[in-house]
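Data availability (excerpt). All sequences and predicted token strings are deposited with the supplementary files. A representative entry, Acyl-CoA thioesterase, is shown inline so that the format can be inspected without opening the archive.
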Amino acid sequence: MSDYFEYRHTVGFEETNLVGNVYYVNYLRWQGRCREMFLKRLAPDVLAELYDDLKLFTLKVDCEFFAEITAFDELSIRMRLVELAQTQLEFSFDYVRLDPAGETLVARGRQRVACMRGPNGRTAPAHVPEALTRALRPFAPVLAGGPA
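Structure token line:
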């Protein structure tokens, strides 16, 4: 098993600008899409909680760009768990272009998320659901000197 969750994506024309390269905001959209696909595939119980009163608030996102990508590039967006706290999670994302000749890291991003519960206007921090903690366990960082 891999230490990351992978979402595959083919870049479309609608994701590029007039110059032909991918518009920067799409990288952030792909972070969200990767997170959604993780929930759908590996934590469907959490999706049910989202329809109830669980809210996942994105507190911070960033992305650093290393190379341009264009329409029809094949990407692997690889999500890893960086930190799991009582009420918050932090993920890292590697954006890798997949070519027959090999893989190229084109960008790297991060995202911090808070778990909240309650009605709108009265939401309060909540513990990360156990179902989410279980689903994330295989993607947790391995600490130096600890068990692999």
